[in-house]
């Protein structure tokens, strides 16, 4: 009986190990499929960009470099320490006078892992209408470029330098880009990147708009669930939770860097935001005030759209964007101004 029991236990253990290995293989296969589908989706969306914006802008996608990885898997391996390569979109208004200088908007996308998709179509058309040159970096960790690039994510870290490198690329390669009229805008994670860029490189930007910006990663880890927190504590990312290394999360949070602000800044947030809880942005606002900084902000009360309230195509959202463009105008002086709904409608629908 003992021998039979031992055989049964051994068989059960081996079976459990086999099942565990098969489940691991299935998970890896599923993740690989997800990344391949992301690549396909990105290629399709690139085609749609030309369909939706090609009538008003020249669109290019350039390949450039940012700093090396902040954390190498194999520090002594081949290629360790090489710059990270990434893509950036460039949108240039058609019909501009190339002997003149035009203002530049640096526009990082949002999402922990996401990309600059045609979700932003109308905003790009509105910027192009004003004769802005727009650069949108697909910074490290963006989706649509495979698993390896996805796992290069450095949220609140060197992604900031990727975005700044995209600004430098435009100034070095287009003589008609005005180095003295560069602004940066972003929503959500893109708002965090915009803020951290002006904190770290105030000499490079004349103005900043941050919409519903992720502002305090420590607070954020407190109200998000385990699956969200795992995106940050993953081995290929920070590799630790906020309670294991609170200073690392603070280093990556705008609210804990507010004393660095030197750039004209406008912040928007919404009390019913279902993604970036208003308490994060309130912490940023209070930190900026405590540091004696001059800036502008508006806390919208339960605006329809929640996290996306001023990025929608509704009349109310467009009216808010007119206010945003008016703030940018003061520092970038674009050749064409959007002042009324009639202007913003022309930008959306007319070539």
From TrEMBL:
SUPFAM superfamilies: alpha/beta-Hydrolases. Residues 16-43 form a coiled coil. It comes from Melioribacter roseus (strain DSM 23840 / JCM 17771 / VKM B-2668 / P3M-2). Keywords: Coiled coil, Hydrolase. Pfam families: Peptidase_S9. GO terms for molecular function: serine-type endopeptidase activity. This is Peptidase, S9A/B/C family, catalytic domain protein. Residues 130-333 form the Peptidase S9 prolyl oligopeptidase catalytic domain. The keyword Coiled coil applies. GO terms for biological process: proteolysis.
